[in-house]
Amino acid sequence: MTATLLPNARQQFVDLNCNPLVGGFVYFYQAGTLIPKDTWQDAAQTTLNTNPVVLDSRGQATIYGSGTYRQVLQDSRGNTIWDGATAG
User: Fold this and answer.
1) From edge to edge, which strands make up the β-sheet containing 68-74?
2) What digits encode the pLDDT tens for the residues 7-30?
3) What CA–CA distance (Å, rounded) separates 12 from 21?
4) The pTM is what?
5) Which long-range contacts (CB under 8 A, 24 or more apart) does 46-53 make?
6) Which of 9, 13, 28, 41 is the most exposed place for a label (fewest CB within 10 A)?
């Protein structure tokens, strides 16, 4: 099985005021759990992302995945912005 984008090659995350979520965190878990699940920096699944993925100075990250995930987005202070399901 190969990885697919979740859902874009380079995603941008924003806060509740639509500002880039600089230094935010994106956690990935097995669907419906708090068991961490891997994501990658490339479709070949050769370079793992950290978990959580730390967003850059533009609130962006490259995230490839395979299957279904529970995705939790937090700001740089650890406040949850949203928690939902996504699929590769």
Assistant:
1) 53-54, 25-30, 68-74, 80-87
2) 565 789 998 899 999 999 999 999
3) 8
4) 0.87
5) 51/27, 52/25, 52/26, 52/27, 52/28, 53/25, 53/26, 53/27, 53/28
6) 9
